[in-house]
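pasting input
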Amino acid sequence: MPTRNQLLDAFREMGVLLELDGANTFKSGAYSKAVRILGDESIDIGEHVQKHSLTSINGIGKGIAEKIEEFWSKGSIGELEELRAKFPAGLVEMTAIPGFGAKKARAVFQELGVTNIEELQRAAEDGRLADLKGFGKKTAEKILDGIAQHRRHQGRHRIDTAWQAARPILEALRGHKAVQRAETAGSLRRWRESAKDIDFVCATENPKDVMEFFAALEGVEAVIGRGDTKASVRLANGINADLRCVAPAQFAYALAHFTGSKEHNVRLRQRAIERGLKLNEYGLFPEGKDVPLEAKDEAAIHDHLGLPFIAPELREDMGEIEAAADNALPNLIVREDIVGLMHMHTTYSDGQPAVEDYAAWAHRNGIAWMGIADHSQSAVYAGGLKPEAVRAQWREIDEVNKRWEKKGVRLLKGIESDILVDGSLDYDDELLGGFEFVVASVHSRFNLSEDEQTRRVIAAVEHPRTTILGHMTGRLILRRDGFALRQKDVIKACAAAGTVIEINANPHRLDLDWRLVHYAIDQGCLLSIGPDAHAIAGLDDVRYGLGAARKGWATKDDIVNCWSADKFIAYARDKKKR
DNA sequence: GCCGTTTTCGGCCCGACTGTTTTCAGTCG
């Protein structure tokens, strides 16, 4: 049985190959669109195939439905095979080079016989490329640069990497005297798990000065392009950053435009058209007029379109516009709703902080309770706790609590128990019963079959002592895919057992994926935002987990971090009795 | 390829920038 990801890969390739083939852009675009639609894990492709109901999905028509069914039954697509025969595989990869699209790939293939990135590099170096019609010396240089960058980073950056690069630049821009307002936009502002580049939007009457200032900032390695209102630079850490300057009156429009997503913007523009308006990054224009409607902020733009404010995290065209139109947007969780954190490691296993360090941090940051969760005994590589170490840590937590309870801070006795290969937990029930909560996580045997892994994880979440399922898939962003697992089955099992699902806030993980957060909530699951901290600095990762929760439409009612310690402990305790 | 209470054909969001041209194609977001 083919997997969703295999189908999406095939469709991605179809989209590029159709472009190479010179097909109607709307045809190739239809495949890219299908990739996005079918990436939604709440769509059960197998079931739709069985019921021949794929065309009931908006955006999937007869043609693509047939391709899906073909792929599902045969594991391949005839038209894809034909296209592959026409164009070497290396051409598809080439289109991932920045500034190098399908048209150029087709040209170098047909005119120079170039079939992969290595040959492209040689052609650019020895001058053949620059002699090609429509190409030139600068194009060749840009392509070489693009190839190097593609190799270095494969084009994407984790959100934390991007944020760390963005923050000082944003502060510098805000400090410039000609800048009235400055914000980050793009996938960073939408709190995606990774970003292709960093987008900034500035309100200024003097774009020229700001552009020059931006291009000369510390950390800028090269200026890729600079016009009157837009500049692109490459930062020293290999991330590209774009700055767009607009007049103050246009700022909200520009911010909304560059925040995206592209798909969300398309939908908003369509909505504008339906209302006799034209929407672009400069404004919302009544038909035939060139003076835009006034909008001091994004909420005003949405209001002009008959919608309540749609938070940036939601702007993925995943139902937010429909919900907004029905006045049914969720009241998203905010940082201030969070009163407790759980899943952090201490010196007892592989963490750097001492137990008490967490109490002190909580006090400084207005957090009422912190759930310690070190590794369990099977995690030998991480210094997992033997039963006697567990009891020693309990005694220490009791002592620390005596010192801090008057200051309104409480530490909870928890554990991150390995899920063993048969789905059991890592201590006997008696010891497990002494914890105030248990996070159960897979740390080994990633290569089980999907069936075995799913059975294993479901057995763990059904264990009466399991409070939280930790980092569900074991994925590492931009580095390692999650292990094979039927996540929706696991989510349903969690809902049935009352097991909380962690949104692991570590930016390397962000697991549960935000795309499934919404699904889990619909299934009736509770969620936790777990920093999985191994150092005090790791507690700041909560911001990324919060972003994922908000992207998944979570409210404070869905997230146990918003509960009091007593409520959380009672929930974990009562679950044991079920 | 998708879609449809004006439509089963003919649209499909819109603009900036670059490099190559000398009016535009390609790429990107």
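fyi The mean pLDDT of chain A is 92.
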